[in-house]
Each structure stands twice: as structure tokens, then as C-alpha cells.
Amino acid sequence: MRSLSRLLLFAVAAQITFVAPCLAKDAEPPTIFLDKSPRIVAYQLGRLNDERLLLVPRSTDDKKYIPVYEAIVGRPAMAAGIRDEAFQALAKLKDSSVAAEMLAAITKSKMDTPDAKRLVDLLTGLMLKRPAAELTALKPVLSEVAGDDDPALRPIALAGLITAGDTAAARSIAESDADATIALLAAIRKLPNKKLKVAQRDYAVNQLESADSLDVKLAAIDALSRIPADQADTYQRLITQVEDAATRTAASRGLMRLPPGVFQTDSSLAAAQALVAFAEATPAAARTTDAFIDAMQLVDRLLTKIPPQQSRALRSRLREVTVRVVKIGTVEEEMRYDVPYFAVEAGRPVQILLENHDLMPHNLVITQPGALKGVAMAGLAAGPQGTGGLPYVPDSPNVIAASEMVAPDSATRITLTAPSAPGEYPYVCTFPQHWYRMYGVMVVVEDLDAWNQNPVEPANPLGSTRSFVQAWTLEDFAGDFDSDLRGRTPEIGEKVFNEASCVGCHKIKGVGGAVGPELTDTYTKWKSDHMGILREILVPSHKIDSKYAMQIILTVDGQTLSGIVVDENDDTVTLLTNPEAKEPVIILQDDIEVIKRSATSMMPKALMDQYTKDEVLDLMAYLKSVDEAQEK
């Protein structure tokens, strides 16, 4: 536990303010002297934590407030809605554009911490989606930034030029030297839509074929693997790079981004043979490196594409030199693993590498068949102390193996011997309330190579029959509210509300969880703004009510707690860690080492991606009907 505390501290030290005691809810706005020199004003604002910064008066009627808005857009933990408001204000006060202000914020960032880099990636994506006119007006500035030698900023500026419609200018700059060429290849992954990426495929192919620099070649491999077109051809180009030690790692990672359907038997066999030989020649001490593990992930994929007799022989050789590793990541803001299921052979050793790319801590607990919910509930009761130093992991025979709680931007490994009995063994994050969505299945089979020839997707361990429908955006619902939801079916909407676990966190007419806002009078509060309400559902982190902002607390004895602060004073903080908790957790202020406010809502995004548009609209109709019934 103490190690987790240290990991979190190191990961966020540059972005958090140490606050003990916590900020009182009735705190007065801090006194900031905005008439001082810019350096002094920046110093004053820099001393404030995010909550106190938002208490500083600000207005769009006086340029003196520009530093306040600039400070807001530079904070990684600001909610998206507040950041949007600040960019709009800066554009008005400086008579510029939102895109220009986003670019200014990007170029000012030091990008020296994971949070800062994540913010720059976010701002880059937002900037490239601004109206074309804004980006066109920025071309002189983008060209200037693209011509600089900053390896982090050049790809962003070049992506901006391409998005603004000036690919010729971007390629002209890329011709200046190898570093500029690498920057343009790196820019491809930043482009905001498929059409723009596909338009750069010929360039990436040409660079791969003609590169006289290894670094350019590696950048071309990476870029080509991220372009969603002609992926069968991409496969043929990359599979030949696996046998070359200089390009092996880049090619392995690139091939893993391609759909399995483009892999071919003969070339898969040749590549698998080369990689197994590479594994055998690798010293034991080097078999835990990222490059080695990524190459072995590719071997796993390749072995599914070749006949069982040959795959068994290669797998047998691998077992002599290394333990099979299954890499599982977390998806930022979506509260899910990026691997929904994987297969292992009964009685064989396997290692699971869990990489946490999310902003919240997560773990991975493997359970007996049918025991997912029971283990999750028992983990909730075990609390942050857990069992054997593993937070939220219960002492239960239904737990087969479990990881520690993994801090953001960190990783851990679980080594186990697969159960001897074939079956479907769920894995789940037991951090409070994550089990609703964050789970998968370890399929234990008698003969892995035979199973790979005819893999069968396991049943959903919670019994859900839902599958992905669409990654819904606000634009997808344009015009759908013209009828004011007349003809919709609130009864279906109520079913969606319960099935999507909304009731676990939100009350309607006094029934439901308490970690989110009461929804009975949603339409009254939002003045029947359909699109505003839909934004709250589809993009829950857009604007987070301070009362429901998630706080991560690190205690002096190494515990990590997360939840909603429901009360605080000079002596204690009262934290509601999950909707099922019978009582909130009370923490002494003296026991608090760090509090970090998250920019991510406790409500995951993509909740509606398994529902049809009609069902989403029926959910809206349900919320509307509840509000109307209350008024009668």
C-alpha cells in the first residue's frame, strides 16, 4: 500500500496542491492583485489549488482577467466545461479565436508530467476539431511552430496545417531534414478523422520504402499501422520487418494494431518462427522488457493463424524460455479493460501485465466461474485495507489471483498457474462500483492451439446480452428533439436507466444511489434543454458539479481512497466511496497526506454505446416524464 501512495505522489506531484485541511465549502475568494506585473500575477495564481483558482473573480469585460483564464486552461484537472468557458473568454478578451488560444496553451505547456502530456493531447484533439476558418487563419503560426525544432510541438503544428487544408506546406516543411519528416509521420496519428489519415497513406508508404534513416523508417512503420485503410497491404509491408532486429519492436507493435483478419498463414508462420528464435536467443534478464513482451504478444497472435501442429511445436519451444504474458490495459474514462477476454491452457503458468492508462486507480481480480458479483461485493466490504495488503480484495476461496491497486500511468503483474478445470473465469476491478462495467473473462481450455482454430467468445459474466452499437456524439442527435420527445416510450427509458446502472449512483423520487445528483427534476433544472441534458449523459466529464467531483485521497499510512466528499471541516473529511456503502468513510485531516481532485467524472463515458438511438431518446423521455409527473 505504501508503494501505491508513493507511485501516485510521483505521478501527480507537479499537478496537485497539498491541502490539509481541506478547503471549506464556504471559503472566501482568494485575494489576487491582478494589477501587478504578469510574473507576479502568475505567481499568485500558481499558488492556488484548482478549487481556489475557480473562486477567483473573472469576467469577459476587462483584460485584467486574462491571466485567470490562462491559469484555468493550463490546469489538467479542470472539467471540460470550465475549460471551454475559459477558452471562449480568452478568445473574446484577446480578439482572437478559440483555436488560437488552444495553440497558445499547448505551446506554453512544459509537458513534463503525465498529466501535462495528457492535457496537451486533449487540447490538440480539440484544436484540430475547431472550424476550418479558425485553423486556416492560424496557418502562419502553425508554420512557424512546425519549423521550430521542438519534437513535441512540431507534429501538432504539422497536423494543424494538414487539417487546415495545407498538406503541401506541411510536406514542404517535412523535406527540410529527417527530424521534420519524422514529425510529419508522427502528425498522422493526431489527425482528427479517418479521411485525413487515409490521405497520408501514400506519404507513409513512400517514406517506408525510401527511408535512408532508421528513425524515419521506424516512424513510417508506426504511422502506417495507424491508418485505417488498405490494412492487408500494411500487414504485408510490416510482417517483413519482424525478422530485422532494428525494426522488430516497431513492426510488432504496428502489427498488433491491425485487425486479426488481415493476417496470412504462410507469413505468420515465418514471422512466428523468427520471433521464437529471437526469444530463445534473448538473455533471461531481458525477457521482461517492454520490447520483448510486445514481440511475444505478436507471437500469440501469429500462432492463432497457423495449423495446430506447427503452433504447438513453436509454443513448446517458447515455454522452455519464457512464461506467457497477456497484456491488458485500461481505457481512459470508460471504466473498462481493453481486452474483453483471453484464453489460457489449463494448468499452465501465465503472467498478466496490467497497464493503467486511466486517471483512476484500478486492479484486476480473477474469480471462480459465476463469482464476479460476489467477489466484488466482498471486496467492497474488505475496504481499502483489503486482504494481504491488496485493497478491496476479499479473503475468499472464489479469488484465484489478484493484483495490487495500480496508480494512473503505472503497471503491475500477476503471475499464476491457470486452473486445471476448463471453464470461463471472470476477471474484474474490485475498486468500489467499478464492477458494473469493468470486467472480462479468462477462458481456460485444454488445448490452446486447438481452441485458437475455432475460438468461441465467452458469455458475458453478468448475463448482459448487449453489444456495441455506436460511439454516440451530440451531433448524432441533431434534429431528434424537434418533436420534444413526443411519441417516445418512457417505460423503455426506465428499463435503460436501470440496466445501464444509472440507478446505482442517481436517485429518482428518492430511490437509487447517492454519489451522483438527484435526477427527479432534471428537466426543470435544465429548463428543458434536451441537448444540454444529453451532453451530461454522453460526456459526463464536460462539467462536474463541485459537490460530485471525485476526490482521490492518500493517507499518511499509505491508504488510497476515492469518492465524493459529502462533508468536511477543520478536523475531518467525510467521503462517500460508493453507492452501496452503508456509511461514509470519515478521515481525520491529520491523517491526510494528499487530496487530488479529478477532472474525470465518476460516471464513465460511453455508457450509452450499447444502446440504440431510440433507447437513448426513450431514456430522455423517461427523465422528462418523471419531472412532469412531479409537477402535477
Automatic annotation (TrEMBL):
InterPro entries: BlueCu_1 (IPR000923), BlueCu_1_BS (IPR028871), Cupredoxin (IPR008972), Cyt_c-like_dom (IPR009056), Cyt_c-like_dom_sf (IPR036909), Haem-bd_dom_put (IPR013427), Lipovitellin_superhlx_dom (IPR011030). Residues 1-24 form the signal peptide. Residues 488-627 form the Cytochrome c domain. Keywords: Copper, Electron transport, Heme, Iron, Metal-binding, Signal, Transport. One of its GO terms (molecular function) is copper ion binding. It comes from the Bacteria. Coiled coil: none annotated. PANTHER family: LARGE, MULTIFUNCTIONAL SECRETED PROTEIN, LARGE, MULTIFUNCTIONAL SECRETED PROTEIN-RELATED. This is Auracyanin-A. It comes from Stieleria neptunia. The lineage of its organism: Bacteria, Pseudomonadati, Planctomycetota, Planctomycetia, Pirellulales.
